Amino acid sequence: MSAHSQEELKPIINRLARAIGHLEHVKKMVEEGRDCGEILIQLSAVESAINSTGVELLKDHIDHVVVDAVKDGDTEAIEGLKIAIERYIR
Question: Of 87, 19, 14, whose CA–CA distance to 49 is shortest?
Fold first, then answer.
């Protein structure tokens, strides 16, 4: 991850901040005793936001880290990516 600049990571950080804010709202809904159906819909939206953030992070990692690793013949970085993908999709 250290190969990324703050500017490159800014969209990921912004997505995470929005998901955190959304999750805080869901927590408040639970505390207020709101309808379970509404809460489940909002939880699904949070889950989708987090998953799409993961996909964007993966794309960015491939574009900036894996491409360089392939050019340099760094098979360790590629194996690390495979492990990360396996863990992510579980």
Answer: 19
Q: Where are the alpha helices (DSSP H) in the chain?
A: 6-31, 36-61, 67-72, 75-89
- Which pTM does this prediction carry? 0.77
The pLDDT of residue 3 is 61
Name the token pair of 10.
């800014």
Residue 1 lies in a domain: no
Supply 53's token pair. Answer: 């953030």
Look up residue 54 and give its two tokens.
């993961």
* CA 27, chain centre distance (Å): 20
Taking residue 57's Cβ as centre, other Cβ atoms within 10 Å add up to 19
Render pLDDT for 7-54 as a digit per residue (tens, 0 to 9). 878 999 999 999 999 999 999 999 999 999 999 999 999 999 999 999
CATH number at residue 42: 1.20.58.1000
